[in-house]
Design a protein that fits this description.
Keywords: Signal. This protein is 11% helix and 38% strand. By secondary structure, it is mainly beta.
Amino acid sequence: MKRILVYALMALLGFTACDASNNDGPSPSLNTSFKFTHNWDDEDVSNVDFNTFQFTNENGDVLSIERLRYVISDIVFTGTSGEQLRFNIYNLIDVTNSEGLVYDLPFFIPPGNYANMAFTFGFDNEDNAQNYLDLNAASFNVPESLGGGYHYMQFDGKYLDVNDEAKPFNYHAIRAVDNTGTDLVFPQDTFFTVNLGPISISADAVIEVKANLAEWFRNPNTWNLNELNTVLMPNPEAQIKMYENGQTVFSLGQIVQ
């Protein structure tokens, strides 16, 4: 993983994101946490809602959720003048086991007005090539035959097929790869940056990041679980569709400070 020392160096150089008015001395540093919440078109979703057929996607497929976990990395705060605070960290959000739903940023940040706050869904290629003992222990790895590295997301459950029979789906997001030839081919990157927009921080803050799970199945690609359900990891076209659908999943929720 790229070194977290980037933050310390920027702090020493005097990073300032707050408005200069009413500022007579050095800005205090604040604790910031991220709270990840999940919904299906504004209906709250947690692990208590798992294993029951209560969700209907854009295609009309009725489904249940059995496992959901994904990784985010590289949190970036961009100041109003374009200066950036980059935190080269990662967090595994495991909804199934209610782990990682709250992430405390390991560094303080200065208060102020920020033009944008962003993070990476999954890992960029440099980070994905690193070795993470906790992710190894969680069996979050991708086989070397599919390029190695780590999953970006594991979203598993069941759906009712055209015969109203329960069938499994494994909506697993990884780096898109074509492994049908002698050498692995990576057609395009499928990690992506989530821009949450402007934010003002004046005190210790808990920032809610909302994930609308219904978006994984509809925008811009209407997902038919009768056609795309399992064995999606070696399917680069499916991975690119997941990348496209993921662009509208996350949004900024409440900020408590």
